[in-house]
Design goal:
The structure is a single chain. The chain is of the alpha/beta class and about 210 residues long. The chain has one domain: P-loop containing nucleotide triphosphate hydrolases (Rossmann fold), CATH 3.40.50. The chain has a 6-stranded mixed β-sheet, sandwiched between helices. The longest helix has 15 residues. It starts with 6 loop residues before the first strand and ends in a 27-residue tail after the last helix. One of its GO terms (cellular component) is endomembrane system. This is Ras-related protein Rab7. InterPro entries: P-loop_NTPase, Small_GTP-bd, Small_GTPase. It is a lipid-anchor.
């Protein structure tokens, strides 16, 4: 049986507070959703092993706080990222308009070696809300924006019922794999990422 080498792939999830970043991560990793809202403090991450062609990869998914006061913590979180996920709420025009700010912030903080070709994935979340009647950002508009930024992959999801979450993260993993370092990386169980980071309960950002 061929040996299986584990590679760490770092994924960053960005977007305004409340768009569902934590919920997406928890739905993908733990297949769980809660209506309880609790803002992420600083950053948190979960890991999930994925397998491609008999090779194991560990996705390290970082969920960063959407509040502006935490953006100054960005450099430590963003550096070494293999893929960046930009999330907005299809029911919030402001969260969509801010995608460009988050993208630019990431490129500044992470300083990828090839910014023009760095892999991004855009997720329009909360398509389940009010049966879609509260929606204000059309799929056409979102896809047009993604096209203008180098044909970024785009998914519409519901972190609540799981719609397209698995598909989106499969794309994220493949994009991360393309740019990821082909080496084994040791990761301790816990990381003190910031002095004001605090342990988080099971509450999540919905």
């Amino acid at each position: 049986m061929p040996s299986r080498r584990r590679t760490l792939l770092k994924v960053i999830i960005l977007g305004d507070s409340g768009v569902g970043k934590t919920s997406l991560m928890n739905q993908y990793v733990n297949k769980k959703f809660t209506n309880q809202y609790k803002a992420t403090i600083g950053a948190d991450f979960l890991t999930k092993e994925v397998q491609f062609e008999d090779r194991l990869f560990t996705l390290q998914i970082w969920d960063t706080a959407g509040q502006e006061r935490f953006q100054s913590l960005g450099v430590a979180f963003y550096r070494g990222a293999d893929c960046c996920v930009l999330v907005y709420d299809v029911n919030s025009a402001k969260s969509f308009d801010n995608l460009n700010n988050w993208r630019e912030e990431f490129l500044i903080q992470a300083s990828p070696s090839d910014p023009e070709n760095f892999p991004f994935v855009v997720i329009g979340n909360k398509i389940d809300v009010d049966g879609g009647n509260s929606r204000v950002v059309s799929e056409k508009k979102a896809r047009a924006w993604c096209g203008s930024k180098g044909n970024i992959s785009y998914f519409e999801t519901s972190a609540k019922d799981g719609t397209n979450v698995e598909e989106a993260f499969q794309c994220i993993a493949k994009n991360a794999l393309k740019s990821g370092e082909e080496e084994e990386i040791y990761l301790p169980d816990t990381i003190d990422v910031a002095s004001n980071s605090q342990p988080r309960s099971s509450g999540c950002e919905c």
